[in-house]
Amino acid sequence: MKTRVFIPVISIIVLAVSVLSGCMPSTGQAVGWPGISGDGDKLYMVSLEGDMVAVNATVRETHPGLAFPSAANGEWVFSLDSVVAPSSGGIGCSSAPSISVYGVPQLVGEAIYLGLFNGKVLAINPSARGYNSPFPQAREGEWMYPSGDEKIGAVVGGLAISDDKSTIYVSSSDGVVYALDAVYGDLKWKSEAFAGDRLWTTPVVDGDKIYVSSFDGCLYVLSAEDGQLLPWRFEAESGFASSPAVYDGLVFIGSFDHNLYALRAGSDEPVWKLAGGNWFWASPVVSDGIVYAGCTDGLLYAVDAASGQEIWPQPFATSGSIVASPLLVGNVLVVACDSGDLYLVDAKTGSGERIGNPQFPGSTDRTTIEAAVLASLWVQDDHIAYIHAQNDRLYALDIASREVSEVLSFREG
Amino acid sequence: MAEAWNLIIADPILNGLTALAGLLSGNFGLAIIIFTVIVRVILLPVTLRQLKSTKSMQTLQPKIQALQKKYSRNKQKLQQEMMALYKEAGVSSVGCVWPMLIQFPIWIALYQSIIKALATTPENLLSLSQHLYSWSLVQQVIPLNNHFLWLNLAAPDSTLILAILVGGTMWVQQKMTTAPTTDPKQRSTNQMMLLMMPFMFALFTLTFPSGLALYWAISNVIGIGIQYLVTGWGYLRKAPPAASDPSRSGKQLQDTPSDQERDLTKPVVKSLSAGKQAERKKLK
User: Are B119 and B108 in contact (CB under 8 A)?
Assistant: First the structure.
């Protein structure tokens, strides 16, 4: 009888302990994959621990062991935890960070704009952060939207900036697109025309129009002026996590339905579509009439923007899913995948090679970086690509020498 | 290990649920309900065996209580005798927990499926791409809508409705099968279990995605239905055959002697009455 009673008790305790300790896999915690942006010597990014940081890339290139942050070299750390109340996540993995960022910080003039998964949009002044002043310094153009404890839906995509740099556009998980004043952070308008469907992509500004892709499988067009929904929309067979790219009057976007679409606003039928082997998550990159699109099937496709014909004899194959958009530097594409491998691919021919692991030269078993690469890459001075991997380390890839090195680790210890 | 788990249990459940949602116009809540029904149908043989075991337990109650009375001071002997009794009657003392244990991997896989399929974070949604089959039914329904009735299936129910439903149905189901006992220690353990399990699951409902809690609630309701069809309301309404009087509270049971106790006390009562009658005669 005792056994009969205690087996369920023990089972429940095991279940409870598993959940409480975060041992159970897939506990649904957001970690983030924050991208990088830069200006001159400085790189700006958010660590997976939720700190906004400024890194002096030039100094670190010559002084690799320099302690971080080096205030003398203009480096700083700004804890986003200190200004944003963490989300109440209930019981879960206790080691998960409270601040998560998936987009790329947008640097415009003296301000860095940043959207958080925690439902906030921030304008940060690098000079004020260098002095470690309390946030926000309104006189320095800093703000937080919404202010106080209020929050909007989770921001997963990046922010879009109007051509005149006066407005910030952000789409959120609550199915709303917000237009914010770039200087004061005031709400200019918000569009709730998306029936609450999640918007996980970056809005794209094209003159007086804004393209917004949604989980409901529709690509919408809004008026940049007042957020009114314009009559045309395109409906794919499934939803979008990929942000659109606009080039030469066409809109390119990949979908969960495995298709990469080329669309012309106003037309119900796509100009062309290319079938991939899995989801298109990364936003396509378009240059010189060629669309480069990474797919979660691990292939990088190169397609003629006008005709939809594949340019390369075959798509370039990587060892994992491509989530970060490829980075085009001159005639070379820097491609990263979630296995941790980095590749340099000739944009014209599609031939390329994997970058070896610097700690295990010549080894084919080890990936370039021993952590997934999901965040957008950044190129500095047209010769070094910076990569923020999921082990919270910053790497530099010298495109000419094809060598990768660790710049900095944001993880303590 | 993780690959085997995904291949054999997690991925089939994830894809099955997603395909069901595809068939039901993307309604993931209805898919969970249909999935629950399917699981309960698959587990029906085990459930029926458990109910049979429970029914046999009911008929054994008088004998068990007699043994408890007889060996109240010798716990080891009591255990031996009870095991012998169970063996003789072909009853498994752990049989009743099998349906629950078998459902454990399903709960975990369902929990993972809900987290992945409804993907509240980009990480979860991204990992979903590696677990979905290439069926067009499955691919076209992604991303799934996580709303069902008042619930966000990917998040805990912020109202108490689902927690009460899960806790309440579990209590009813347990009450129907929890046999009363005269052993005070066993009785308090039973009472604790009767309250603790529903309370724990109600608590889990407040912290787990409501999709999983929906599974628990529907599963409990189906369980109550099956149990009712096999054994009736069981111990929820009536006393077991020839048992002392299980519907009484613990206090009542302590205050009032059981059937066996009454049998033992009858002569004492008779002799007392005879004594009183003799005294009365003397007084007269």
Answer: no
Q: At how many degrees (to 10) do helices B98-118 and B44-70 cross?
A: 140
Contact flag A11-B197 (C-beta cutoff 8 Å): no
Share of chain B above pLDDT 90, in %: 15
Could you tell me if A408 and A376 are in contact, meaning their C-beta atoms sit under 8 angstroms apart?
no
Taking the Cβ of residue A143 and every Cβ of chain B, the question of whether any pair is shorter than 8 Å is answered with no
Domain map (residue ranges) of chain B: 2-247, 259-284
A5-46 residue pLDDT tens: 555 556 655 665 455 444 454 446 889 999 999 988 899 999
Closest-CA distance of chain B to residue A266, Å:
24
Q: How far is A389 from chain B (nearest CA, A)?
A: 14
Q: Which of B108, B121, B142 sits opposite A238 (nearest CB)?
A: B142
Q: Which residue has the higher pLDDT, B248 or A258?
A: A258
**In which residue are the tokens 């919270």 written?**
A392
Mutate to test the interface with A, among B53, B64, B121, B185 (most CBs of A within 10 A): B121
**A198 interfacial to chain B (CB closer than 8 Å):** yes
ipTM score: 0.88
> Higher pLDDT residue, A10 or A257?
A257
Phi, psi of A76 (to 5 degrees): -155, 165
pLDDT in tens, B191-226: 777 888 888 889 888 988 899 899 999 999 998 998
Q: Are A384 and A406 a contacting pair, CB within 8 Å?
A: no
